Amino acid sequence: MTEHGDHAPVRTAVVGTPGDRRVTLFAAACARYGLPAPAVVPWTRVLRGEEIRLEPGTLVRIESPGQDAEADALLRGPGRPTRAGGGAAWHAALTAGLERIRRAVTRTPGAVLLADVDEIAVMFDKRRCHARLAAAGVPVPPALPGPVGGYAELRERMDRAGWRRVFVKPAHGSSASGVVALQVAGPRIKAVTSAELTRGEPAGAVPYGDDRAGDDRAGGERDAAELHNSLRVRSYTDEAEVAAIVDLLAADGLHVERWFPKAGLGGRVIDLRVVTVDGTPTHAVVRAARTPMTNLHLGGVRGDLGAVRARLGPRGWERLLDVCARAAACFPGSLCAGVDVMVGADWRGVAVAEVNAFGDLLPGLTGLPGGAAEGLDTYAAQVRAVLARHAPAHTPSGAPAGRPPTGHPSVSHPSTGRPSESSPPAGHAAFSHVAVTR
User: Fold this and answer.
1) Which of 284, 417, 414 is nearest to 341 (CA)?
2) Residues sharing a CB contact under 8 Å with residue 160, sequence separation 6 or more, in sequence order
3) What's the rounded Cα separation, in Å, for the pair 252 and 21?
4) Cα–Cα distance between 338 and 356 in angstroms, integer?
5) What does the alpha-carbon distance between residue 240 and residue 208 come to, in Å, rounded to a whole number?
6) Average pLDDT over residues 153-157
7) Which residues lie across from 352 on neighbouring strands?
8) Lower Cβ count inside 10 Å, N or C end of the chain?
9) What pLDDT does 223 receive?
10) pLDDT (tens digit, 9 = 90+) per residue, 24-45?
11) Which element (helix H / strand E) includes 256?
12) End-to-end CA distance of the chain
């Protein structure tokens, strides 16, 4: 290991998927600060319950399992990786794995866990995350309390609340998997989602409304309906199909929020992913789309952050960053958080849609000008923060320092950082519930 004068070496390890971009980008950030490559503890080993070995004094980072098919099967159980569902099993397996990591760090002399595993579990439970944010006074869309058992109950409770537009979200999921933007107006209904409703086994599945499958079985029995992720956002206007989608999702638990009308720019609706490091907003990306889902892997595009900042004005931009900092403050044990924040259609209101434990995969994006991470990507900003907190003597004198974390980034300069496109979580190949965009 690299030595810095008379100081002990800095050892790092990352729980992740070997070869995954998240792991390699973190390793590159370590190298940028003169640290040796981190040891990699595969998620598959953790999920199989195998022994986790760490060197004494190791700083341990937890990463997303990424798009590893074996890890996905260990998390959700056997089945096609494209299937939308299995979130409850996924969350239970994840939290069990997180507890194994915590125990391994606890029993290793001098080892430090760089994340709060309980906070990760909350961030991947939309109902608990929403409740935590609301209790802290962070603006969030109103949500239906308690469990929602299925489509019939959803419509009944929407009627009682006087809501005609809602977002129906699986309680445990990411990358917009299974998310439904639902609108009703009298007898008319429209559900927008990237989930494809099919009948039959995936190898021969056809769209749910297609009569080519399932009608010729003995006794007229139709194949069971299934939901699978796709990269195409589609609309359903048949109430029977919408009911089938919601009922399939309800088996794993639902979180239902009132639709928050978002601001538009250039003919597209927008929201932002704001990354915080040590509680300070450091990086931001605008996501713009012509559908309610702004996720980049679903056809969304990166918008002009400078134009959004100009439209908000200095006070509006500062207010947005303050909301993101308040959301991050709800998770004080988390070094990094990805806050999905929405700007109201009137360009005044702001609401947090999600807080992501692994929301920092924004390759090539550097920190906001004048901010705490100017010139640093999200991983370098985190490595610098870790060294400042746990091993300040090890920061090489020639290493990129960025600006000290003195609060929110300056509002006087538009950001010009343009990240490269992140790989979409699958839905067409191997899908992981833990991915960068929701």
Assistant:
1) 284
2) none
3) 29
4) 5
5) 10
6) 97
7) 341
8) N
9) 60
10) 999 999 999 999 999 999 999 9
11) strand 254-258
12) 38
Phi, psi torsion values for 434, nearest 5 degrees: -110, 100
Nearest to 228 by CA among 178, 300, 181: 178
Exposure b/e, 35-45, CB count within 10 A at least 16 = b: beebebbbbbb
What is the gyration radius of the CA atoms in the chain, in angstroms?
A: 22
Strand ranges in 94-187 using DSSP code E only, listed in sequence order: 112-113, 165-170, 180-185
Supply angle C-alpha 39, 44, 46, rounded to 5. Answer: 70
Question: Up-side HSE of residue 429: CA atoms within 13 Å toward CB?
Answer: 9
Separation between Cα atoms, residue 167 and residue 180, nearest integer Å: 6
pLDDT value at position 350?
Answer: 98
Residue 218 to residues 31, 36, 141, 215: CA-CA distances in angstroms?
Answer: 64, 64, 48, 9
161-210 pLDDT per residue, tens: 999 999 999 999 777 788 999 999 999 999 999 989 987 554 444 454 44
Q: Residue 298 — very low, low, confident or very high, per pLDDT cuts 50/70/90?
A: confident
Per-residue pLDDT of 341-381, as tens digits, reads 999 999 999 999 999 999 999 998 999 999 989 999 999 99
Residue with tokens 């040891």: 39
* CA distance to 11, 65, 170, per residue, from 173 (Å): 32, 13, 6
* More confident call, 164 vs 3: 164
**Rounded to an integer, what distance in angstroms lies between the CA atom of residue 434 and that of residue 438?**
9
The Cα 261–Cα 407 span in angstroms is 29
Task: Please give the Cα distance from 59 to 292 (Å, whole number).
Answer: 40
Q: Are strands 188-199 and 180-185 parallel, antiparallel or unpaired?
A: antiparallel
Backbone angles phi, psi at 138, to 5 degrees: -75, 130
pTM of the model: 0.85
Q: What percent of the chain stands above pLDDT 70?
A: 82
CA-to-CA distance for 266 and 269, rounded, in angstroms?
8
Single out the residue of 64, 58, 18 nearest to residue 379, CA to CA.
64
